[in-house]
Structure formats: structure tokens, C-alpha cells
Amino acid sequence: MQIKFSKKIYSKFILPEYKFNENLEADYWRNADWDNYTEEELLNGLHELQKVEIEKYFSYLKEQGYLNTDEYLEKTLNELQYVDARVKDVITYANDYTNYLSIEFANNGLLPCKTLIRIKPEYALRALFGAKDLSLYYSDGNTYSLVEENIKIDEEDYYNFNITHNSEYLLTDGNFEKLAKDVNSSNNGSQNNPTSVESNKDTSAETSNTSTDNPKTGDIIMTWISLMLISMLGVLGIAKILKKSK
Fold first, then answer.
1. Residue 176: CB partners within 8 Å, gap ≥ 6?
2. Residue 133 region, left (φ>0) first, then alpha (ψ -120 to 50), else beta?
3. Distance between CA atoms of residues 183 and 66, nearest Å
4. Contact 8, 97 (CB under 8 A)
């Protein structure tokens, strides 16, 4: 079994469905006018373009009902002044993020049974993530599911955990919570905890169950069938009585 390790960063502020302009910075520097502008002037020009992209993204978050977007936007724009990085990286480092060890197994697929995995990363990676209280997550590319908690290094410097299928797993001393969203979906300034997983609860199912008591088409059909049966039974009963009276 082949296993690939790599250090990566997770940010709850980067929504996977949003499409950033990934070529913004590369295109800008490729076409930069080095003959007429200093490096500082060119960097300021790039920052102006990035500022537009950042503001557009946080406007999208606000429209989707995410909380405290103005606060996070301000922090991101403050960070932008001091760095030369991609828009996604500026947003990530200006706000909360989580380091994690990506563990990718070759030949992805379901295993015949629960399997104990023992890994021994390089010392630098072990020092980064710590020796205890780690959590293992499974990722399908968009969502993160907790697999195991309280993982620690054993006496031989191995992390031990169990899996049931080959995939990408994420080992971290942080967490993969979602960006807090207004559960009322009304953008009314509700002050939910911005780091609370519970505040991301989907209430659409609850709302749909209480939204209306109007009968559906199937209810009307069943009502007509019931009325027809009652009418038929009534006719049969009258006919039987008349027959007996004769």
C-alpha cells in the first residue's frame, strides 16, 4: 500500500463552490510594465485588482447569509497591504485556518474490513501537529467527516488509526468546522457564534414540515375515492332494504 504525505492548510473561509480567478496574479505579473513602474508601484497596482476580487467574494458570502463578513473583509484587506500572494491565500492567512497532514492512499476503494494504519511522518511534521489529541477526518473533496478522535503518537513515534476504505484522510490538531451562517436566512444581524458548528445547522427540513397544511393532489384523490366508496355502500344498503321489504 502506497501512502503520500503532504502538509496542507484548511480554511473555513474558502467555499469550494466559489470560483476565484486563479490566473489573476500570474497574468498581472506576466504583463507588468517593468520599464515604467517600480516594483512597489506594480505591487500596489496588483493589490487594487485583488481588492476588487476580495470585496466581490465577501459580498457573495454576505448574500449567502454568512455572518460577520464585514469584519472578515476588513481583516483581509489589512493583510493585503503587507503581502504578495494569491487572493485565496490572503483570505486564508488573514482569518482562521488549520494545518493538517494529508494522507492519500493509492488504489482508492472499500477495504474488506476495518484496517489499522500506522504511520510515522518525518519529525518536522510530527512537531507541527503535536503528539496527542489529534483528529482524523475523511474528505470527499467538498465535505469533511470526522472518523476518529484522540489520536496520539505511541512509544515508537507512530500515529495509529483505523479506516474502512482507501481515500484522502486529514490528520490535524485543529478542526474542520464551517463558516458560521445565519440559521434564520434573513440577514437580520443575528449574532451567532462565528466559530460554532451548531450555528450551521440546516433548518430547511424543519421549515418545510411546518410551512403549509394545504392538501396535496394525492390527498384530494384519496378523498374522492373515500366519498365514492361511501356513496356506493349507501346505495347497496338502500337496495338491500328495499329487497327485504318486497
1. 10, 12, 98, 137, 144, 146, 170
2. left
3. 9
4. no
Contact between 85 and 47 (Cβ < 8 Å): no
Q: Which residues have a Cβ under 8 Å from the Cβ of 182 and sit 6 or more positions away?
A: 65, 66, 67, 188, 190, 192
Whose grid coordinates read 476504505? 165
In the sheet that holds 159-172, the strands lie side by side as 3-10, 98-119, 159-172, 134-139, 144-151
Contact 80, 87 (CB under 8 A): no
Residue spans per domain, the chain: 3-94, 99-172, 214-246
> Mutual orientation of helices 87-94 and 39-63 as an angle, nearest 10°?
70
Cell of 186: 434573513
- C-alpha 157: how far from its chain's center? 32
Q: How far apart are CA 166 and CA 147, in angstroms?
A: 13
Q: Is the dihedral of CA 103, 108, 110, 112 positive or negative?
A: negative
User: What whole-number distance in Å separates Cα of residue 109 and Cα of residue 117?
Assistant: 15
| Identity at 167, one-letter amino acid code | S
The CATH number of the domain covering residues in 99-172: 2.60.40
Q: Specify the pTM.
A: 0.63
The model's pLDDT over 56-98, given as tens digits with 9 standing for 90+, comes to 999 999 999 999 999 999 999 999 999 899 999 999 999 988 8
Cell of 177: 468546522
